[in-house]
Amino acid sequence: MWFVGVLIALWFIIYLNLESISAFICNIAGLTSVTSDYARSVEFFIFEVPKVLMLLTLIVFLMGIVRSYFSPEKTRALLEKKSLFLGNILASVLGIFTPFCSCSAVPLFIGFVEAGIPLGVTLSFLIAAPMINEIAVILLFGLFGWKTAMIYVSTGLFIAILSGYFIGKLKLQKYVEPWVYEIKSSRQEIGEEKINFGGRIESGYAAVKDIVSKVWLYIVVGVGIGSLAHGYVPADFLAGFMGKSAWWAVPLSVLVGIPLYSNAAGIIPIVQVLLEKGASLGTALAFMMSVIGLSLPEAIILKKVLKIQMIFIFFGIVGIGIIIVGYLFNLIY
Amino acid sequence: MVVVKVLGSGCARCSELEKMCFNVAAENNIDADIQKITDLKEIMSHGIMQTPGLVINGKVKISGKLPNAVTLLHWMQESN
Fold this sequence. Notes:
The structure holds 2 protein chains of 2 kinds.
Chain A: H1 2-16, H2 18-28, H3 37-67, H4 72-79, H5 84-97, H6 105-114, H7 119-131, H8 134-144, H9 146-169, H10 179-182, H11 197-232, H12 239-242, H13 249-257, H14 264-276, H15 281-293, H16 296-302, H17 308-332
Helix pairs in contact in A: 2-3, 3-8, 3-11, 5-7, 5-9, 6-7, 7-9, 8-9, 8-14, 9-17, 11-14, 13-15, 13-17, 14-15, 15-17
Chain B: E1 2-7, H1 12-27, E2 32-37, H2 40-45, E3 53-56, E4 59-63, H3 69-79
Helix pairs in contact in B: 1-3
């Protein structure tokens, strides 16, 4: 336990002094002229990469601990017999905290539907769970500040709640593969082991090992591309076609974003470049949400339980939600 | 003989779990019939919501994560 305390204290000492540390490194490397494109790129990279990786490690660790209090089984139990709208809100919020891997989307879908949880509530969960994840939130916080991170979380929740609610109202049960309703599972209790706080810290470590080892490379490459653009690309480069004046930019970004598939770690440093080079916040946000939240692989996985019409309706409604959010932000900012 | 079913349709951790089961059984001379279940209906009939799932002699032992080798061995031995 004291060991964790020491690690966290160390983390804060390094993190709070990161700017001077990276400046020091740049100094030794002889990069003192901030005026050249090259120096600007390298400095940006040397500061941003450790910053983002450190933030990621801490948050993944903390989320690993938080998630050990949640499980799909508990979430299902909480959602049973909830009315439609309240159920959508609860499902979306629980989507943030419940451990979720898109490879388990189908068993989870069946498990929810079979327990009598309405289709719309189940889909609220399936929209929120991948879209609002700790990696997205922490990268937004690290690169843009807490306001943008909060905007992302709240608009993500908004989309998940409303899309699920509308889908629920449309009564689309007929577009779910009929065999889903025929499954009679023996609900066994997997004797939930009692874990003490030490065990939860273990889950935090496990999450760091699992996630950070998977995404660090995306971050380095993403920030690398970002750094190059930071130094070399003129600041208003994208203003013409991703700026506010281009009304078609938002829907186009969403259309381009849907078939693209990337995890948050890869896409957010790219979004940072888009913003820096003249894209407007709403357009960039819409692009990012469609890349993370809606993806072709997800559609293919869900095809096992949903008919094609339902997939189109699902993606259509969520897509429209994202477009509305995009326009809204272009209007406000 | 102990019947071990690894439930999962193709996720990376599913094949990892299957491999673990084979290794643990081989290293400890456990007579095990290890099956990989990929059929969704059969997976769901065990009532799990996350893959991989592990079923030993009809009992769900774990779902959504990998057990450590010691625990896995313990499960196999107690069911044998």
